[in-house]
Amino acid sequence: MFTDDVMTASPLRESLTMQDADLSHTGETTRQTAPAGAARIAEIRPIMIRVGWRNQLLVKVTTEDGLYGWGESGLSGREGAVTAMVDHFAAFLLGQDSRRIGRVWQECYRSQYFEGGRVITAALSAIDIALHDLLGKRLGVPVHQLLGGAQRERVPTFASTMAKTTDAILADVKTLTDAGWTCVRTYPGGFNDEETFDPRANLPQTAAELIAVREAFGPGLTLGVDLHHRYSVAETASFCNMLPPGTLDFIEEPIRCETPEAYASLRTMTNIPFAIGEEFSSKWEAARYLDAGLAQFMRLDICNIGGFTEAMKVAGLSERHYVDLMPHNPLGPVCTAASVHLSAAVPNFSWLEVRQSPVEQLGFHDWEIFPVQMEMDGPDYRVPDGPGLGVEVNEEMIPAKEAGFVETPHLKRPDGSVTNW
Exposure check for the chain: N or C terminus, fewer CB within 10 A? Predict the structure, then answer.
């Protein structure tokens, strides 16, 4: 946990304070400060808590008048590194005008020699989301109003099944379609295996499961699979060749995203639409895929890509290429709320990921910790009309939700070599 005393005593914070004091004698300043008033940033507090089976990193930004906003970082499993980055940003953001969100974004991103990086943008995402929440509350409007206003009244979602047998998958899809879902995603067989993962052995099983779902539910169901970047180009191509035409409506993250040329090669081997982008940490990463025609659904994650400020730019780039957003939303209620506002405000939108369906309750949306959060109406989120994000945190519960060390499974192949989780 991080307290005000710990943050105030930060060596970096003390160093910058002394530097400001020294420069004040010459009339110079090291940072832009807001005019005297209530909107100046008084505190930026990272809060790491355990919710469900993993940690969540929240960020609370408070202004001098006591108004506050909530943000969330999306770099799951590396919350300690992001916490340090948030503290670093706080050292020069305190005293700045909380309303100048775009300028804050630029200063955090540009004021260093080494550009970007996922730790930096995950921290920046949380601060940016919190500043939008704060400004919405200050103006008495929902965040989507700050983005141009809602373009839809409801935000449709897709749900997932993590069942491990064909019969269980079919039962889950039946439950979801009966509840109103028209878009469903599955995972590869053996997805949660914490010891070994054999891509070649896994592919026929996954193909058979998807064929069974398509045969049982017909062409009206939008069906996708998340391969979780566990495969090579050749393995993915083999998998796609096992599927009759029309089986899949999208294939998500089949390979890692570092090399667009690999996706370009895969694109020549299959006509199944790609849903990619959850790993992107900037508009520059997204643009390489959009300009090359390699993303048919944009899976940006608002808690990793740079918050609302960067997400809206990626949405605009995607619109230029007639690509709809399918936002990544695997975290907690703050991420969900931010994703709902983003999804409401953009014209090019398909479905928002949901992890709160009748077949998947992961414990990340604990109502005791988050007494105010987004509400669902069947398979859709209602577009909120209250001020800010529309999510609150019961801070009295924080001491009881102490974060611990969490690490995703370190998978190996049958020969003992390391493979992707």
Answer: N
**CATH number for the domain running over 4-140:** 3.30.390.10
What are the residue ranges spanned by the domains of the chain? 4-140, 145-387
Task: Give pLDDT tens digits for 23-62.
Answer: 333 333 334 444 446 899 999 999 999 998 889 999 999 9
Closest residue by Cα to residue 381 from 207, 194, 157, 227: 157
Distance of CA 346 to the CA centre of its chain: 16
User: Same CATH fold, 145-387 and 4-140?
Assistant: no
Task: State how far the Cα of 312 lies from the Cα of 327, in Å rounded to an integer.
Answer: 12
d(CA 402, CA 122): 21
Residue 160's beta-bridge partner residues? Answer: 185
- Cβ 48 vs Cβ 87: under 8 Å: no
**Across residues 385-409, what is the average pLDDT?**
92
Sign of the C-alpha dihedral, residues 260, 266, 267, 268?
positive
What's the fold here for domain 145-387? TIM Barrel (3.20.20)
SS3 assignment for the chain: CCCHHHHHCCHHHHHHHHHHHHHHCCCCCCCCCCCCCCCEEEEEEEEEEEECCEEEEEEEEEECCCCEEEEEECCCCCHHHHHHHHHHHHHHHCCCECCCHHHHHHHHHHCCCCCCCHHHHHHHHHHHHHHHHHHHHHHCCEHHHHCCCCCCCEEEEEEEECCCCHHHHHHHHHHHHHCCCCEEEECCCCCCCCCECCHHHHHHHHHHHHHHHHHHHCCCCEEEEECCCCCCHHHHHHHHHCCCCCCCCEEECCCCCCCHHHHHHHHCCCCCCEEECCCCCCHHHHHHHHHCCCCCEECCCCCCCCHHHHHHHHHHHHHHCCCEECCCCCCCHHHHHHHHHHHHHCCCECCEECCEECCEECCCCCCCCCCECCCEECCEEECCCCCECCCECCHHHHHHHECCCCCCCCCECCCCCECCC
Q: Answer whether 0.85 is exceeded by the pTM.
A: yes
Measure the CA–CA gap between 213 and 186, rounded to whole angstroms. 10
pLDDT at residue 10, rounded to an integer: 41
